[in-house]
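Query structure, 397 tokens:
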């Protein structure tokens, strides 16, 4: 496969740093432009009726989107990638491979918007979902029915950063002919590659680390299953929730620094998680890279770093959490994660508000829980910001 002009790779695959910059992006053959052109055309001239060249209409396929899709496939080690207008659009398109009467087992700790798709969009269409704590793979076995067609999970999970043993779950699924979808948004392909561990399809909100600059909403699906890839290609075009060429370009540009960014996100989050563990006003720190994380050993086995998100249970309740969040000066109080700038949010009131309150309580999404997305600012500045907000939460100003 040729990754770039003059760079033909015949043996072995280049490392992820090289793929991030070159995969799917050979120099433009017309002008030699080294950056991918943004092809805004909605339609393409055809030499004969119904005999297009490579592209005919930009919902079906577009050169800038194709470059992004090839790059995403290479990063995840898949053979086909599909880009969407959002992570939710990617999820909904994948779920349209199912039929009424089919059953999905989903991890119980997932993004609130994903829960809402299962609960309020796919449920009424006759596709039932069970929500299961997949930290113990045996629980999956108990939840399967003769109609289960798909297992869906996040690892690390949003917002509690729990892990699922991907290889163990993949083995259970494969034995029964059930597809496994892994939402790899929190880890990114730099820290975890689910297809290599046996997943059927990887899901991304490219809005997050993949783009990394909080200026695009996007999503992706990546697979090596050729039958599923054919179906996804059909559904991507038929449903039409595709991203604009401009957004595809921005995501491609963001990807070029993904490996570099992830290394710094992990280094800073590990440092801050350790400091937060001993800090006044902090009840508990959830971070897979900490030795105190219940699944730290699994994180060492299936990830190459604990990620850039830290979830913290503060002493006290909603009032303390609100004081903490509104006292931050460098962390911005906002939904989303994975950008160069640090963000903080309250899962119970914000990203996971669509999950019923009793289910949130069962999961451990408490009033005092806050989620931090550690950005690329100076770590001492971030620590000072957190210390100031912790003091404010305790009523010390
Ligand atoms: O926002 P969108 O691009 O549609 O992606 C949805 C999505 C899918 N999967 C995971 C793990 C996610 O975290 C998200 C979006 N999450 C947030 C906006 C958030 O702040 O958690």
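Result returned for the query:
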């Amino acid at each position: 496969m040729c990754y770039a002009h003059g760079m033909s790779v015949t043996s072995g695959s280049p490392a992820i740093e090289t793929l991030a910059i070159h995969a799917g992006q050979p120099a433009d053959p017309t002008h030699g432009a080294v950056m991918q052109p943004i092809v805004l055309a909605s339609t393409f001239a055809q030499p004969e009726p119904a005999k297009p060249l490579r592209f005919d209409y930009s919902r079906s396929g577009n050169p800038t989107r194709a470059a992004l899709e090839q790059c995403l496939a290479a990063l995840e080690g898949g053979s086909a990638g599909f880009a969407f207008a959002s992570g939710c659009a990617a999820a909904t398109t994948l779920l349209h491979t199912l039929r009424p009467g089919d059953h999905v087992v989903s991890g119980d700790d997932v993004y609130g918007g994903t829960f809402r798709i299962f609960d309020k969009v796919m449920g009424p269409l006759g596709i039932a979902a069970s929500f299961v704590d997949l930290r113990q793979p045996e629980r999956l076995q108990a939840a399967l029915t003769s109609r289960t067609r798909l297992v869906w999970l996040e690892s690390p999970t949003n917002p509690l950063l729990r892990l699922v043993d991907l290889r163990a779950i993949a083995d259970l699924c494969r034995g029964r002919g059930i597809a496994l979808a892994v939402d790899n948004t929190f880890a990114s392909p730099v820290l975890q590659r689910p297809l290599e561990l046996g997943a059927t399809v990887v899901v991304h909100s490219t809005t997050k680390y993949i783009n990394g600059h909080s200026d695009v909403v996007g999503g992706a699906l990546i697979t090596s299953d050729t039958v599923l890839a054919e179906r996804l290609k059909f559904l991507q075009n038929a449903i039409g929730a595709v991203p604009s060429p401009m957004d595809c370009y921005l995501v491609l540009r963001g990807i070029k620094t993904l490996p570099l960014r992830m290394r710094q996100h992990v280094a800073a989050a590990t440092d801050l998680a350790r400091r937060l563990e001993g800090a006044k006003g902090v009840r508990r720190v959830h971070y897979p890279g900490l030795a105190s994380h219940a699944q730290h050993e699994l994180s060492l086995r299936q990830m190459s770093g604990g990620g850039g998100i830290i979830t913290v249970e503060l002493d006290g309740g909603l009032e303390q959490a609100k004081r903490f969040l509104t006292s931050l000066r460098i962390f911005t109080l906002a939904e989303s994660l994975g950008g160069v700038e640090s963000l903080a949010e309250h899962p119970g009131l914000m990203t996971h508000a669509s999950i019923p309150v009793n289910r949130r309580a069962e999961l451990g999404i408490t009033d005092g829980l806050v989620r931090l997305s550690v950005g690329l600012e100076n770590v001492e500045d971030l620590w000072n910001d957190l210390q100031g907000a912790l003091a404010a939460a305790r009523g010390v100003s």
